[in-house]
Amino acid sequence: MLKASALPQTRRLNMRRVVVALDGTALAAAILPDARHLARPDGELVLVRDASLVPSYTGADPDDQTQAVDASRTYLNEVAGSLREDGVRVQVQTMVSGDAALAIDEAARIFDADFVAVATHGRGGIGRILRGSVAWRALAGSPVPILIRHIGPNEQKALTFRAFARRILVPLDGSPLAETALPLAQELALQWNAQLRVTQVLPAFPVVHATGAFGMGMAAYDDTRPARHQAEEYLRKVTAGLDGDVHTHVFVGSPVNDLVTAAEEWLISDIVMASHGRTGLSRAIVGSVTEALIHRLNLPIIVVPAMATVPLHKSAGRVVRPVSLASKV
User: Fold this and answer.
1) Highest CATH level, class, for 10-163
2) Which CATH architecture describes the domain 165-299?
3) Which tens digits make up the pLDDT trace of 10-45?
């Protein structure tokens, strides 16, 4: 629930706003450099913490919740103060919802955000803020893309802005849903002067055929040439209208292993991919693949949820903005 005492401030024309989900830990705050880069120097961060995440005692009186809210506000203001000293435009908001996923999605809508940014840790799947299914529930209901990044134990430092060359990887699977990541990837590539690598991973299916006299023997071979050619044509078609430094690649094998290898060899800095509205990502790029990429690659992964791509008249009354940010106000 949003406290009435803190209403979103009016944004400037074309200002990009990023909701950053925090929980009071250095792990969660380590996402701040990536959120700042995504917001751009003229953008704004909205630091959000769900006070119900603060541990409380069973049977505690209502004053405990008040104290938790006060502690959350104090923490957010301290982080915001450090950012403001570095020239960052910041708002803060404490939520009391009891559900991290709902709090994140509600904050994105209330503050008319362009993105949500969250951190994960390396052991138990999605981290303290986004535990297990909460991550996918947040994605399923989010009206905006979500930046998720695995933060290693040596990276739990925030408030340091990092500028370096960007290379964006966009995994596709041949579906229109996966292609909805392309407009955002294109826009970010142009803004960051980044190289864009659009890929598709094909499964390697062995083909069995008869051999020997009278066809009594059997042999298996892998002939993916027709499928590879079709995939290459598909990638050329979907990237034909993209500007900038754009490359296409087709792999045959394991989506996770091939994407990880490609990201490491190409020095990829960011991944942009689309999600399914209920179960994660579509077809080959399923939820388990996304989670594996998050754990194996220490990169920002921007996931475009289905709700961020639904036309307004199909969004069941919810105001859902398009993925492209060019007309943002």
Assistant:
1) alpha beta
2) 3-Layer(aba) Sandwich (3.40)
3) 544 467 999 999 888 888 899 999 999 999 999 999
